[in-house]
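Hi Prof. W.,

I finally got the PAR1 protein prediction working! I wasn't sure whether to trim anything, so I left the full sequence exactly as given:
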Amino acid sequence: MSSQMFLSLVLFFASSLLLQGTLGEIVCEDLPTEVCSFSIASSGKRCLLENFENNNGETEYQCRTSEVVVERMSEYIETDECVKVCGVDRNSVGISSDTLLEAQSVSKICSAACYQNCPNIVDLYVNLAAGEGVFLPDLCEKQRSNPRRAMVELLSSGAAAAPMASENLVGAAAPVSI
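And this is what came out:
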């Protein structure tokens, strides 16, 4: 190995240690609002976007740590690519199962591009669906074979009838491959 190559490897290793030290932990409250939704803190808890009224009566947004724990993932900021292919909105306030009421949203979450490549978003929706009494892999299978019937069954089951409070979503199950 040449000395120049060795020096390059040493510099790369040293810079990666410095970068890791400067990045530190992900704390939801420290994240910019533009990347808050679909992020996971170092603690393993989901970040969520909240709004509040400031002293001037204007609506402002802040990133907060929820009580929703993701078991197999931490220190994660969702990619713009996954946000796009899964059809989710990074400006969503709170955590809600309302998306499950929209056939187009379910179609995007169940798409191969989302379901097979975006485990963070899929994990969230597996849990949101479970909280509403729906098994997302089954819903996705029905959605692929007969989208209209899948939505009728979802609505008739009473699932996703009301937004779910984030405090009820403790413990995240791993997404199931289909």
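The chain has seven helices and four strands. Does that look reasonable to you?

Thanks,
D.
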